[in-house]
Design brief:
alpha+beta; STM4215-like; 3 helices; 6 strands; 23% helix
């Protein structure tokens, strides 16, 4: 049994996104990390963070996990479209975790901006997940 659910949650998020043929047909991959020169658009899943969310009768964690969308499109429309696809696939989903139960996964934050050189549009979606350790 694992103490932290982060790796299991990360894997479940990856599996959910990678299993969607529509999403996968529009991106070059879900990568960790993306190699230099990777064809755009693509997605990376950030490491995230976890805090204690325990109560008297359960051991729990609250997670923040970031999904990064990278696009070479001149405007923000491609990032916004992909962000909407990702949010639809993940929000409110009951994903299977190893040793933990996911009791909520919800959209929390979105930001879209150009990276330093102005050539790559970068979108960040943040989700909040709450897990309970199965004892």
């Amino acid at each position: 049994m694992t103490q932290f659910a982060m790796q299991s949650l990360w894997q479940a998020v990856y599996d959910k996104l990678a299993s969607d043929n529509n999403l996968m047909s529009t991106i070059s991959g879900i990568l960790d990390p993306a190699p230099e020169g990777q064809k755009l658009p693509y997605i990376t899943i950030g490491d995230g963070s976890a805090t204690d969310w325990s109560a008297k009768d359960f051991k729990g964690q609250e997670h923040l996990i970031d999904i990064h969308i990278w696009s070479g499109h001149k405007g923000g429309s491609e990032v916004r479209k992909l962000s909407d696809q990702v949010a639809t696939l993940l929000s409110g989903q009951n994903l299977n975790l190893d040793g933990h139960e996911l009791v909520g996964l919800n959209f929390f934050f979105y930001e879209n901006f150009f990276d330093g050189d102005g050539q790559v549009n970068h979108g960040i979606l943040r989700f909040r997940g709450r897990t309970i350790q199965i004892l």
